[in-house]
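Re-run with default settings, no changes from the original entry. Doing this only to confirm the output is reproducible before filing.
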Amino acid sequence: MAGFSDSLLRLRASFSAGKTRPLEFRCSQLNALLCLLRENEEGLLDALYADLRKSRFEALVTELRFVKNEAWTALNNLERWSRPEGVERSFVTKLDHCFIRREPLGVVLIIGTWSHPVRFLLTPLVGAMAAGNAAVLKPSEVSGRTSETLASLIPRYLDKECFAVFTGGPSETRRLLQYKFDYIFYTGGSPVGKLVMKAAAEHLTPVTLELGGKNPCYVSPDADPESTARRLVWGRFLNAGQSCLGPDLVLCTPEVRDRLLPALKRSLREFYGPRPRDSPDYGRIVDRHRFRRLRDLLGSGRVVLGGEWDEEERYIAPTVLVDVKESDPVMKEEIFGPILPILSISSMGEAIEVISRGQKPLAVYVFSSCAKVIREVLDHTSSGGFCSNDNLMQSSLNTLPFGGVGSSGFGTYHGRFSFETFSHRRACLLRSPGLESLNVARYPPYNQQKLNWILWVTDVRRRDCSCSVL
């Protein structure tokens, strides 16, 4: 971390000089990022395989392609996003020019996570770039190979006067957080998220926290077991379950469970073969510390599918648990691994009660062919996002905001939401120096006539609408 002070001063000087503000510069850096991804695709794929044994398909679709699409979206819309936004004017401002101007925040810090080490570091960077900020990037040391690869590539492609990368572990992150930034964007777990927020408070720095939680999935009796199983298996065991959006818990009646289990078994065999450890499409746990935590969670409930493990290889088979209780360890924390517990409930109402008793998750899922069931779960639960008859897919559409609520985080990004996150919406009113006679009523000495006039011209009148006043 030696030399960080000098780097931060250099970035702040570049921002203060206005280097990052022109749209031409922003576009050039976004294009440079796209060039980095294009020219170093194989190196990044190798790094992701080394860290997580992530398949080429998964790495391209959920990491590189995701960032590319974000960058192209920003390039396609940046001029429009950056235009001043006119606002409705009151009677007393009819002659003024009133608008919202979006301005960059300054020097921002982006702290990535290891589960999707390219996507969760570079996607926020796209928003920071598009909004005209300078940025410091801190990739996760847990995915060390990908971290080192990005740290070596980014200075070669992006302007070193405006963008910097720092590697290291928790101690380096703590030292980094001692400095003042104009915004901090953190993706990771809640314990570190609390430390980030505490450090930010020392400088009154605004933050976005992208955390996680136990994403519940209610499977209704009318759901098709085959399609439900295929989508659940894909969403839970993608990246060996190391995804903040994966379904973390299935809620269903015992009858639904008994229909679902054979379908889950068929889907697992279809996707990963009779021996998932030999499948080129099934990943590994990122390190031994996290492997051991997951292995201990296998003691909850009863294993009905999978359960095999190999510490040397950091392999845990795709596993389904039944007979779990809310008091079991697997129900007390986000799993973040290839384990899918099924909790038996008696009805949709009980499922909603279970969901509501827990912390607000990053996503709620429901599988049903009945629109009323879907609406009931949507209306009576709270989460960062919601998806029916699938999972994860809500995050693939960058016209939807991605983010948590409550303990699963706050703040959103993706597409224009990233641009807005890293922008200050500056309220602007441009008024003529003339027409002073119109201002006399607001100046002392005050009298009833002036008061009546001010109240009349500033009154907001209610329009006809369907809302009733209580």
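The longest strand covers residues 97-104. The chain has a mean pLDDT of 95.
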